[in-house]
Amino acid sequence: MDRRSFFKLGAVALTAPLVGGVSLAGIPRLKFEDLKKEAKVNVIYHADFPQEKRFKVMLRNITNHLSVYDFDPFKVKIVVVSHGAGAKFFLKELAGTKWAKEDIDQKGIKAKLEELKQYGVEYYICGITVKRGKLLNKLYDFVKIVPSGVGTVAHLQSIGYAYIKVQ
Predict the structure, then answer these.
(1) What is the CATH number of the domain that holds 126?
(2) Which of helix, strand or coil describes residue 46?
(3) What's the pTM?
(4) Does residue 5 belong to any structural domain of this protein?
(5) With 50 as the cut, is the pLDDT of residue 3 above it?
(6) How far apart are the C-alpha atoms of 86 and 83, rounded to whole Å?
(7) Per the domain annotation, does 77 fall within a domain?
(8) Which of 7, 52, 85, 128 has the smallest number of CB atoms closer than 10 Å to its CB?
(9) Which residues pair with 19 in a beta bridge?
(10) What angle do CA 154, 166, 112 make, to 5 degrees?
(11) What does the alpha-carbon distance between residue 123 and residue 131 come to, in Å, rounded to a whole number?
(12) Mean pLDDT over all residues of the chain?
C-alpha cells in the first residue's frame, strides 16, 4: 500500500459511521471540497484553547465583527474551527470527557453560539478530536464535523479566508 492510499484509508475510517455525509448521531460531516467562500469577506476564528474567558472574548469579537457588516451573512461569512481543548465549548455535557471536572458556563455559551448561528456563523469541529475523545454523541446538533481542525484552517486560508485567533 502506498502512502497516499494509506492516508485515504485513514480518512475513510475517521468518517465512519456515516450515512450520506451525516454521522449516525445526526451531525453533518464536511469534506474539504464542501468548504467554499460564501461572502465578500470570509473569516476563520480558530479555537483550540481551554480558557472559558478567552472563548467568551472570541464570541464577543465575533459579535462585534458581524456588527460592522450589519449582521448580514451576504457581506461576511464567519466560521469557528475548533479542535483539541476548544471542542469542550461545543458539548452538551462534559460528563465522560477529560473535561468532566471543569465548571464552565455551558448554558450561557450555548445561548451565544445559537445567537451567532442566526447570522450565518458556522461551527466546525475536528473529526480527529471527536473520534479520540469519543465526543460524537455529546456535540450540539448545530456543529459540523470536519476531517481535521488544523487541516480545515489551512484549507480555508488557501481559498481566501482571513485567520483570527484571540489571544
Answers:
(1) 3.40.1260.10
(2) strand
(3) 0.85
(4) no
(5) no
(6) 5
(7) yes
(8) 7
(9) 22
(10) 100
(11) 17
(12) 89
Annotate 24-33 with b (16+ C-beta within 10 A) or e (fewer).
Answer: eeebbbbebe
**CA atoms of 63 and 119, how far apart (whole Å):** 9
| Secondary element (H or E) of residue 140 | none
Whether residue 11 is contained in a domain is answered as no
Number of domains the chain is built from: 1
Q: Find all residues with CB under 8 Å of 108, minimum gap 6, and list them.
A: none
C-alpha cell at 167: 489571544
> Residues 119, 99: contact at Cβ < 8 Å?
no
User: For 77-90, b where at least 16 C-beta lie within 10 A, e where not — what string?
Assistant: bbbbbbbbbbbbbb
* pLDDT, tens digit, 9 for 90 and up, residues 81-139: 999 999 999 999 999 999 999 999 999 999 999 999 999 999 999 999 999 999 999 99
Amino acid symbol at 16: A
Express each pLDDT in 24-80 by its tens digit: 567 899 999 999 999 999 999 999 999 999 999 999 999 999 999 999 999 999 999
Q: What is the pLDDT of residues 96-110, one digit of tens each?
A: 999 999 999 999 999
User: Could you tell me if residue 12 is inside a domain?
Assistant: no
Contact 39, 73 (CB under 8 A): yes
